[in-house]
Amino acid sequence: MESILKKKHYRKVFYSFVAMLLAFSVTLRYLVLPRFDSSLDVSVVKLFASILDGFSISLLVTVIIGSFIFWLTPEIVKKSVMDVIDPKEIGPLLKKAIPVSRTWIYKGACGRYTRATTLPMMAQAARQAGIGRDIRIILLDPDNSLLCEEYATYRRSLKSARNGDAWTASKVKEEIVATVISALRYKHEEPLLRIDLHLANHFSAFRFDISDSYVVVTKEDSEAAGLKADQATYFYDSYVDDARLTERQSKRVFYSKKVPLDGDLTADAVKEIALESNLVSQDGVRMLDLEKILSYINCPKDPYS
After folding, report:
1. C-alpha to C-alpha distance for 201 and 91, rounded to whole angstroms
2. 3-state class of 136 per DSSP?
3. What is the pLDDT of residues 134-154, one digit of tens each?
4. pTM for the whole thing?
């Protein structure tokens, strides 16, 4: 019951079904059956009294059972709950948490959603509230060609690979570089945002976004369900620790110069930033489609839209 009521579209279906079932039961009991047996006929007052009796008994039983379950549930279980999220609920759940979170941690591969949605929404929320935000982003190291090739192979094996451009090592690197440069731009242009970027040399089938309220764990496949753990639970704290440990083993991105805005950002500027921030080597940058990176930065697409 709890898992049904937590999901908005399940909740609507459930309440609609219960309302229809209740209306059918009342109609059958008090309008249809009395036609076949006059002893079942009741007045409006008796009908109301009968409903109150049933409600009182149901309420008492519900409270007793609920209290019984609450007191018998071990504390460790209460703190270790993770909820399953339907694929179509992941985007709205993330968007709900972004404006009210003072901190955000993303650990994943390319950070397309972070580039398209998280960064601009965090920047807007910081400007409106006049209060700073801390953002930590962990991506794959685009200078590790073997890692990018392995990740591209993994993405091609997924059902969602049928949509969009084919995943190659070059595409993985281009997506990562676009996300990093986008983050560096926000870091320079938005003084209320403190953004730390790290590049890891391993990848997982899972990625997670940690807000102040909960952590959302997803897979790269857009049709796969996600997981959610609320703040102050065991799993929430575990994912925060996992991000901290990954950062200690990763390469941090340093770049203090200004990143040109949309109209001034050129392919040559992208190349210069990628080299000066040590995202890729001199040989590696020649393999990248700089114009495509430029389009990823200027026209980011929300993968959950």
Report:
1. 27
2. strand
3. 999 999 999 999 999 999 999
4. 0.75
